[in-house]
Amino acid sequence: MTKKLILSAAVCLMFHAGLFAEPRCDVKEKRDSARNLTEITRKLYFHEGVLTLTHFTADGKTPLHQKWGDYFLGLEFGRPPRSNGGWNLWEFFTCYRMDKRAINISREYMPESVSMVQSGDAAVGDIIIPSGNGGKLELRLIQFPSHKKWIFMRVTAKDFQPWRLDLSAYPGNSNTPKERERHIAARENRYCTSQAAAEFVPESPYLILFNKFVQDRYGNMIIFNPQQFQKIVSPKSAGAVMIQFFPKKGENVFFFGLGYFADQAADDAVTRFLGEDGDAVKAFMEKIDWEPKPDTKGFEQALKEAGTLGVDSAKLKEIETEYADAVKRNDVSALANIMKKLDDLKKTTARKGLDEFK
């Protein structure tokens, strides 16, 4: 009877621990024996949307790029059914610094940490990557259940000057039907990037990416601070729509709203977003606390569950102390790592209980 009770507790807690719960961060490693490389894929799951960061490496420290697919920083968000559209699944964001050549930081350097925590009802994802010249590229992405069609992103170029920031999307789909036109609209102007590259000095804080004639019920939206940028360039393209932001000297912290519209006429979406809808989301974005307090209730519950499973009390005390210190520092990355350590202990203990029952 005792073993049956332990088994039931183990099974329940393994599921309750959130093996498939969101938001979360997953890390998977896969060996490519033919090339003697390891594929490391990190995924951040939001309330809606998944960010994927993939590198191939021989030593776990230096990325190698030998063919397409050896690197991704994709965002599956606002993807229409049966398509590869929406925000770019392969490289939605790029930060370059200039050192005789343009250096794509997230492609050329492995991340120091990738984590996801929940603060209240907000999903908070963090990616920290060395810049290669003593600085760090820090990305914080936040999503709220009240705004599931938006992910808000803070980009911090710590101790280095960014040369260019790119955002990329495939409104509607990634294919290239001849009759489709790619368009970008700001409050002050409109551009057809299927026909020619666009270059302009931004005045308003809104851009909406949409199509005409084909796939015209899906698109993507951007909110940003125009005063931080010298100019914006969007290359001519029938496929991906790339928005290249060129920061002014001295600017190193940037805030973006990344959104989408779906199953809505493009003309209507453009009118609404460049009108009151954009203003409403921008007002919400300006009130975001980018240093949210950690949700300790989840940790307290997980700690209690670990004790029920029979995890060593000395280990639990050590984890509890580490967590308290991280809370004082408001170190989101450390908190996520500690929660993962606790979850791993729970899973190991639960599986041990299952093995003993057998």
Task: Give an account of the 3D structure.
With 358 residues, the chain is of the alpha+beta class. It folds into 2 domains: 2-21 and 293-357, no CATH class; 35-286, Beta-galactosidase, Chain A, domain 5 (Distorted Sandwich). 27% of the residues lie in helices and 36% in strands. It contains 6 helices and 20 strands. A 9-stranded antiparallel β-sheet has the order 8-9-10-11-20-17-16-13-14, with helices on one face. Strands 5, 6, 7, 12, 15, 18 and 19 form a 7-stranded antiparallel β-sheet that branches. A hairpin with a 4-residue loop joins strand 1 and strand 2 (37-45). The longest helix is centred in the C-terminal third of the chain and has 26 residues, at 332-357. The model is unreliable at 1-21 (pLDDT under 50).
